[in-house]
Amino acid sequence: MPIQLxxxxxxxxxxxxxxISQFSAICCFLSSTLAGAATSQASCAAxxxxxxAVSRAAYQEKLAGFWLGLSIANWTGLVTxxxxxxxxxxxxxxxxxxxxxxxxxxxxxxxxxxxxxxxTINWVLRSPGQIWGSDDDSDIEYIYLQLMLQSPNPLLTxxxxxxGWLAYIYRDDNTPHRxxxxxxxxxxxxxxxxxxxxxxxxxxxxxxxxxxxxxxxxMIDAQLTTELFGALAPGRPDIxxxxxxxxxxxxxxxxxxxxxxxxxxxxxxxxxxxxxxxQDKAALRQALLNIATQARQALPTNQYxxxxxxxxxxxxxxxxxxxxxxxxxxxRYQLEQQDGYEISAKQLYCNGCFAAGINFAAxxxxxxxxxxxxxxxxxxxxxxxxDSDNPAATWGGLYGLMLGAERVEQxxxxxxxxRFDIHRxxxxxxxxxxxxxxxxxxxxxAVTDKVVLQLMQGRLSKDKQCWLIPLPAPIxxxxxx
Length: 481
Hints:
- With 481 residues, the chain is mainly alpha-helical.
- The protein has one domain: ADP-ribosylation/Crystallin J1 (ADP-ribosylglycohydrolase fold, Orthogonal Bundle).
- It has 17 helices and 6 strands.
- It has helices at 14-40, 56-77, 139-150, 158-168, 190-200, 228-231, 237-249, 254-270, 275-278, 281-296, 304-317, 322-335, 356-370, 374-384, 389-403, 405-412, 437-455; strands at 51-55, 132-133, 419-421, 434-436, 459-460, 466-470.
- The strands form 2 sheets. A 3-stranded antiparallel beta sheet has the order 1-6-5. A 3-stranded mixed beta sheet has the order 2-3-4.
- A hairpin with a 5-residue loop joins β5 (459-460) and β6 (466-470).
- The two termini are 29 Å apart.
């Protein structure tokens, strides 16, 4: 039953109001989700009304799905990455749904050559005999997973984050990788690269994500490197935000940090969706709208992420086709610079095509219009434009987390590789960087053990098969008057 908020007087601070609103949303979310989750986790039962139960084995399958879904969407999105960004010429002629399966067009840096991943805009899949390579949409999260696994406390410090980045990321002077032009390649860009440069100078997070020392804090930042933290705090977005707070601010600030937090919260909420729910497309569509509404509450209403959310949602609810909605958001934000989104005025390379804002808006297109269908969601993300592998990877990981690895394979009607090569982009890991999603999922469960026991003040069931997770504690109300 929804919690009734008390009448708030103007003297109550906005921060307290938001905290109470978020607590109410968490409780409402849990009450509507756990009934369905219980049927899929019959062996796990809460012993009190103040907690909920999650099967560790079932959740390990979900975490394997997270990595598999992320990899499918990431690599498929790379086919169209930066093909369409607006402006004049071919890059300004955006893709539509009719372009799926047709020839890929060159990206803005492709020198007239289409993607070498696929000649057509289509799924990039790896069979069981092949291996998924890491990319910047997966490798920083992998580093964070290993750091949390190694640390007694799952809350990473600035020193731990800096040490991890320096240990596992190549510098330009020691990388074996090269671009097509023969330049050193370490697979970091814009804010992430600037943060890494600052770490080499001795800076610690969160200062590595703050202006003026990081003027790129809202471009290729934490929006693609921190969704995992939501998956490591199932059903508790409040705890997920604690885990992600410093990693987000390692490379992001302001609105860009808010966007990353939005993604983290969605993952924490969707993590508890039951098998029955995710197989009912209509119910899943409504559940996804519900958790997005709850995550929207944390976006400051006077800033552009919230206004982008409201604009895209309004287009969706009005029945506007997604291509027209995409064209409308391009006009509104990159041409007219409405709602405080002023990237174009900065006259950046490719008109800020890497920016957190425009890619957040594009991600909302695929989230809403995908309507509970994994393939449709990823297809729209791939075709929408800009840094297309970024939103695609985010939603691929989200759907994988909801479905689990086996059901992800069922979506594509075939067995897929579960192997992963972190050394495609990073260095310093055991077994020459060769691992697999089952191992990564088991590591995620081990980290979640720490999160449940230390941060949630939860416990394991007597047979060690289940997490018994407390509902969030009520937030004390400030005196009124």
